[in-house]
Amino acid sequence: MILKVSGIDSYYGNVQALHGVSLEVNEKEIVAVIGSNGAGKSTTMNSIMGAVPVKSGTIEFMGKDITKMKTHEISRLGIIEIPEGREVFPGMTVLENLEMGSYSIKRSRTELKNKIEEMYDLFPRLRERAKQRAGSLSGGEQQMLAVARGLMSDPKLLMCDEPSLGLAPVIVDDMFDIFIRVNKELGIPIIIVEQNAYMALQISKRCYVLENGYVTASGDSEKLSKDDTIIKAYLGG
Ligand SMILES: Nc1ncnc2c1ncn2[C@@H]1O[C@H](COP(=O)(O)OP(=O)(O)O)[C@@H](O)[C@H]1O
Ligand SMILES: [Mg+2]
After folding, report:
1. How far apart are the CA of 10 and the centre of ligand 2, in A?
2. DSSP string of 121-190?
3. What is the pLDDT of residues 167-213, one digit of tens each?
4. Mutate to test the pocket of ligand 1, among 42, 212, 216 (most ligand atoms within 8 A of CB)
5. CA of 9 to the centre of ligand 2 (A)
6. Long-range contacts (CB closer than 8 Å, 24 or more residues apart) made by 125-130
7. Domains within the chain, CATH numbers bracketed
8. Most C-beta atoms within 10 A of its C-beta, which of 19, 152, 181, 212?
9. How far is CA 27 from CA 170, 190, 205, in A?
C-alpha cells in the first residue's frame, strides 16, 4: 500500500470539515474521490499534503507517518498535488514551467533535457507550444502543463483536484486518457478528485464518495457505477 489515511478529523479553526475520513491507495492504482461541491474533497487532499491541520487520525505514506509533517517535506517524499485551478506560471513559457517542476531534483543538463523530452512525448501539444507563455494556452493545455510539471519531479503519488473543471467535454476525454497513460506507462498511482463522477468512475479502479465531510460509500468503481444510490445522487439518473 502506498497511502493509508485512517480516520482523520480536519478542522478550519473550530469548524470540523472532515469526520473520520479513511482512504487507501495501492501501488499503480487510480483511485477516485467524488462528491458534490463542499463535500470535503479538497480538504482531504490538503490534509494529506499537510496544508490543513489534522486533529486526530493518521496518514501514512509508504509506511511513514506523515500526519504532522510540513507540506514541503511531504512533497519531497514524493506526493505531488495538482491543485484545483491548475496554477501554472502564466508569465513563463511552457518550457520554463517544466523546468520549474524539476527544481527540487538534482539533474544534469542532459537528464533534465531527457525528462522534458519524456513529457513532450506524453503531451505532444506541449512540445509544439514550448516557447509560448503558459498564460496564452487554452484551459486544456494549461491542465496538461500542470500535470506535466507535476511529473517533472518524479512523484510517487499524483493527486489531481478537479482536473475537468471548466474544460470542454472533448478536452475532458483527452485529459482522462492522459491520466490512464501516466498511470500505465509510468506506473504512478493517482488520486483523482472530481465532481464529474461519471468520468472519475470510468477511469478509476476504486472510488470513495464524500458527503459533508464523511466517507459515505467506497469500493470497486465499476460496482459503484451500477449502484442505484450513486446513480441517483451523482450520475444524473
Ligand atoms: N479555507 C477554508 N476555511 C474555512 N472553511 C473552508 C475552507 N475551505 C473549505 N472550507 C469548508 O470546508 C468544507 C469542505 O470544503 P472543500 O474541501 O473545499 O469541498 P470540495 O472540495 O469537496 O468542494 C466546506 O464546508 C467549505 O466551506
Ligand atoms: Mg474542491
Report:
1. 15
2. HH-HHHHHTTTSBGGGS-HHHHHHHHHHHHHTT--SEEEEE-TTTT--HHHHHHHHHHHHHHHHHH---E
3. 888 889 988 999 999 999 999 999 999 999 999 999 999 999 999 99
4. 42
5. 17
6. 126/94, 126/98, 129/94, 130/93, 130/94, 130/95
7. 3-84+155-234 (3.40.50.300)
8. 152
9. 29, 9, 12
Instruction: Indicate the helix (H) or strand (E) that contains 228.
Output: helix 228-234
How many degrees, rounded to 5, is the angle at CA 114 between CA 111 and CA 118?
135
> Which atom from ligand 1 is nearest to the alpha carbon of 40?
17
Average of per-residue pLDDT values in the chain: 95
Ligand 1 pocket by C-beta < 6 Å: which residues?
Answer: 12, 17, 35, 37-43
* Reported pTM: 0.95
Label residues 46-60 b or e (16+ Cβ within 10 Å = b): bbbbbbbebeebebb
Residue type, 58: T
Quote the crossing angle between the two packed helices 139-151 and 169-186, to the nearest 10°: 10
